[in-house]
Specification:
The structure is a homodimer of 163-residue chains. Chain A has 7 helices and 3 strands; from the N terminus they run αααβααββαα. In chain A, helix 2 crosses helix 6 (113-134), helix 3 (50-62) packs across helix 6 and helix 4 (68-75) packs across helix 5. Chain A is globular. In chain A, a hairpin with a 7-residue loop joins strand 2 (95-99) and strand 3 (107-111). Helices cover 71% and strands 7% of the residues of chain A. Chain A has a 3-stranded antiparallel beta sheet. The longest helix of chain A is centred in the first third of the chain and has 28 residues, at 19-46. Chain A has helices at 6-13, 19-46, 50-62, 68-75, 79-91, 113-134, 139-161; strands at residues 66-67, 95-99, 107-111. Chain A has 163 residues and is mainly alpha-helical. Chain A binds a DNA duplex (30 and 30 nucleotides) through residues 39-40, 43, 49-52, 67-69, 72, 77-85, 88, 103-107.
Chain lengths: 163, 163
Amino acid sequence: MANVALFETVLNSLPPDAHHRRAWLALLTCFSRIERILMQHIAQQYNSSLPRYDILTALALHEKSLTMGELATMLEVTKGNITGVVRRLSHDGLVSKVTLKEDRRIQSVSITAEGRMLWVAMHDDYDRIISRLLSGQSDDQVKSLTRALKQTLKAVDKIAAAL
Amino acid sequence: MANVALFETVLNSLPPDAHHRRAWLALLTCFSRIERILMQHIAQQYNSSLPRYDILTALALHEKSLTMGELATMLEVTKGNITGVVRRLSHDGLVSKVTLKEDRRIQSVSITAEGRMLWVAMHDDYDRIISRLLSGQSDDQVKSLTRALKQTLKAVDKIAAAL
DNA sequence: GGTGTTTAGTTTATACTTAAACCGATGTCT
DNA sequence: AGACATCGGTTTAAGTATAAACTAAACACC
């Protein structure tokens, strides 16, 4: 009897003028459903995870190595977080981490050949899943979703900056 | 030099026809930015967290108590997850957990008076923040975002069910 | 050249999350 | 009644995340 997603419950409890809340709820739900599918796929097929994939992506697309701080900035997570994930990736031989001679505070992280091979495979798969999940909609629908999200992102960043 | 969010980097690396990937990227970024703001606010103001808020919300909106399994279903997380968060909430006196007499396997969880008071305050604040963050857009823009997200959710669920 | 200050990253404590193994209680079936 | 399956939750192991405290290197500057 109570086995309905919270999404529905909250949605029904919302007054008709709660547009903002409804949008956020839809955003949250949509994101979580898709993320879970990606997560489970990456886990099963590659014995890996989204955070690992993200770091490999950053390194793969940048070519030249990145510092821990740059990774943290790009992924929008704390530096402490990066320390752990990079340690495990490095342990698995997917990235390499070198202390810079010129400034011994700085760690220079780059993707290894093995890491790049894994990344290419994962990236391909990741893309295929996204395409499949969104394939129920027309290109126009998808484009309009993207447009709305980018607008929202811009608005949010503006307000958030003024905090 | 590399201090740009991964969002931008990936976006620039995407071929013009990668509509799906672009939509997902926008969704991911938009979600994360908003979630982080909510998370930090709830942490600072209430020394609490979004998972805790979610459980309180489920209980507050349902009135009659819920089982651990129902909570897991509603929040779309594992039962093991619920065990931990509920334990801490219960320890803090915000929810109460009782073993059912009729079926000693079942835990009946409900929100306490104290829990409800906290929830009301948090809920209010949460709503205010969402409204504020999305206030840069017209009602029509917000509604169209919601519409696009609901469509997407429906499409995603359909495809995901056929896995 | 020593004395602070800033900077880059790590460590610590705590919480959240999953998947999988597990435990007890209940239901089923003969 | 006894054997076995199922069901509801908990536990475990590992990873991910934050904030805050910390370490060590580089800088600044008198």
